[in-house]
Amino acid sequence: MGILDNFEKGLERAVNGAFAKTFRSGLQPVELTSALRRELDTKAAVVTRDRILAPNDFTLMLAPGDYKRMHAMGPALTDELTAFVQQHARKQHYQFAGGISITMQPDDSLSTGILQVESQNVKSDVSWVPVLDIAGKRYPLAKGRTIVGRGREADITVDDSGTSRKHVEITWDGSHAQVRDLGSTNGSQLNGQSLKKAILEPDSVITIGRTSIVFRVLPQTSARAPRTRQPDDVTRRNDIDGFWQR
After folding, report:
1. Which of 74, 117, 137, 196 is deepest in the core (most CB within 10 A)?
2. CA–CA separation, 183 vs 180, rounded Å?
C-alpha cells in the first residue's frame, strides 16, 4: 500500500491554511496532493482547442519541522506525489511541456502546517532509467543482463536464505525488460504468479524467497531553469504518459 492510498477521500478532510496556523498542525502527505491539485487547476492554460498546458515543475516550501518529517519518508513520498500529478492531469486532459519535477525545501519563514507552492512550465527532454527497488535500496540496471541472488557471483546480492545463489536474471535492452528464473530451488513469482520467463512492465513485483523486487522505469529530465530559491535534495521526476504509453 502506498503512502497516499485513498488520497482523494483524504483531500476532503485536508485542513486549510488558517486551521493549520491556529492549531500548529503538522502537514500530512494528503495536504501536499491537495496543494498540487490546486496549483495545477489554477495555472492550467488553454493554448489551443485541444491543448491545455499545465505547469510541470513544482517547488513545495514547508516549515522546517514539516520538511524534516516529509524528508524522512524518502523517495517514495515524492514518487507518489508525482503519480498523483500524473493521474489528475489525465483526468483533466492537461498536457505538460516536459517531465514532471517535484522538489521540497524548508522555509524558515513558514509556520508549522503552512505550505507554499511555486510552479512553472519547463520544456525538457526525458531519458529513461530502469531500476530495481530491493529492501529500501535502488539499483540502476545497465544494458544487458543482471543476476539477483544470494551468492557472491550475483550482480545484486540479497541476504535471504530462501533464495538461490543465482536466482533470477533480468535483462534490459534499452527499451524493454525481461525476467527469467534460473532454475532456483524455491522458484520465483511475478505479481503473485509462478514465474519462469516473462516481460517486465513498470511497477511489476518479483518475489524470490522472502524478498520483493520492484521493477521501475524512471524518467529523468534535463536540467531545469534556475530559480531564485535553490532547491534542496528531494527531487523526483516523471513523465505524464508513462513509459509504456509513449
Report:
1. 117
2. 9
Q: Sketch out the chain's domains with CATH numbers.
A: 3-120 (3.30.2320.60), 127-220 (2.60.200.20)
pLDDT band at 193 (very low <50, low <70, confident <90, very high): very high
What is the number of other CB atoms lying within 10 angstroms of the CB of residue 217? 22
What DSSP string describes 87-126?
A: HHHHHHTEE-SS-EEEEEEE-TTSPTT-EEEEEE-----E
Confirm if 106 and 116 have CB atoms less than 8 A apart. Answer: no
- The whole-angstrom separation of Cα 43 and Cα 160 is 49
The reported pTM is: 0.53
Residue 186 to residues 39, 96, 163, 195, 234: CA-CA distances in angstroms? 49, 45, 7, 11, 38
Is pLDDT of 185 > 80? yes
Residue 235 pLDDT more than 50? no
The arithmetic mean of pLDDT across residues 26-31, rounded, is: 88
